[in-house]
Amino acid sequence: MSEVRDDRQYTETHEWILDNGDGTYTMGVTDHAQELLGDMVFVELPSEGDEASHEDEFCVVESVKAASGVYAPVDLEVIAVNEALDAEPELVNSSCYDDGWLVKFTAEAIDDLMSAEDYADTLD
After folding, report:
1. Helices marked H in 10-106 — which ranges?
2. What global pTM score does this model have?
3. Which residues of the chain have pLDDT under 50?
4. CA-CA distance, 52 to 62, in Å (whole number)?
5. H/E stretch holding 118
6. What is the pLDDT of residue 74?
């Protein structure tokens, strides 16, 4: 069974969002998503300062099985990217909720995301 952490919100496209409590958010792909994709071999991240509109594809994670888009949960501006993924894309597999985060961003509001409980229900 996939791990779902209670301290995050989730999207229908299997991204997690963590409110950092200072007006910024951290985002990555869920445990369920990384399990489905398999071993990561490449992560294409945006650049700091890039903006994305709600539901735009703005990152790509590539595994031995497939490449998959990562979608903006809201209108956002990227303020940091996880540069460790350039050398170690497998961090998305081994630590998707911690060391394998993708981006940090700012946004006006985070609405219409699923709670951990609601997201877990979609996986059943």
Report:
1. 31-37, 84-87, 91-94
2. 0.95
3. none
4. 20
5. helix 116-123
6. 95
Residues 6+ apart with CB under 8 A from 112: none
- What is the distance of C-alpha 19 from the center of its chain? 13
Task: Give the pLDDT score at 109.
Answer: 84
Those residues with Cβ within 8 angstroms of residue 55's Cβ, 6 or more apart along the chain or in another chain:
71, 72
Pair 4, 31: CB distance under 8 Å: yes
For residue 52 the two structure tokens come to: 């994305």
Domain spanning 9-108, CATH class? mainly beta
Residue showing tokens 């911690």 = 98
From residue 81, alpha-carbon distances to 8, 10, 75, 105 in Å are: 19, 19, 17, 9
Q: What is the DSSP letter of 4?
A: -
Angle at the Cα of 28 (from 24 to 29), degrees rounded to 5?
A: 150
Place of tokens 């460790």: 84
Domain ranges of the chain: 9-108
Residues 83-102: pLDDT tens digits?
999 999 999 999 999 999 99
